[in-house]
């Protein structure tokens, strides 16, 4: 059998002018993950990431402890353009940006539902196209008998979970919102299909002196 280790990037810079870069904690999360993978897996047959800065920085942190000569970038693994869509949706609907965490989660779900229904006129891509590019990229890189490490984002994790488990959009958004930074979701490759082995693994962050590093944004 083959295995796909699908990693969400480390903590990014939520609230900053440029979200697409790791915080200091995000860099540490990535380095801790690399040490964990070096101790538990050792080496991967292929390493691939999206080409966003937070993907590249996460992979660079992992590689400080997990040495791998060749890495590939595939922009099909990039995250959805959520902030662009969210702004377009607010302009179209007149909705206001909420000021607390629970309301923000409901807001995220509403934007995702509108996107899937094709109701955001200026969305950079359709939900169907987003889903298709994620799934095709993983199909292209995964193979029986090989271990593959992929570094991407929470949205793509949700897409894979939806595909493998047959989830609806509401359940998918719950999973996206609950995916830890620098977490690992593992799939078994059997022929042309994937089977879930582990979701949201954070063994490298569960030590007493690292519990502060359990983050979602």
How large is the count of helical segments? 7
Instruction: Estimate the mean pLDDT confidence.
Output: 94
CATH superfamily heading of the largest domain:
Phosphoglycerate mutase-like
Rg of Cα set: 17 Å
Global structural class:
alpha/beta
- Euclidean distance between termini CA atoms: 33 Å
Question: Any idea of the CATH topology of the largest domain?
Answer: Rossmann fold
How many E strands? Answer: 6
Largest sheet: 6 strands, mixed
Strand and helix order: EHEHEHHHEHHEE
CATH class of the largest domain, named Alpha Beta
Return the CATH architecture of the largest domain: 3-Layer(aba) Sandwich
Q: Level of helix content?
A: 40-55%
Question: Which term fits the overall shape?
Answer: globular
Q: How many domains would you count in the coordinates?
A: 2
Determine the strand fraction and express it as a percent band.
15-25%
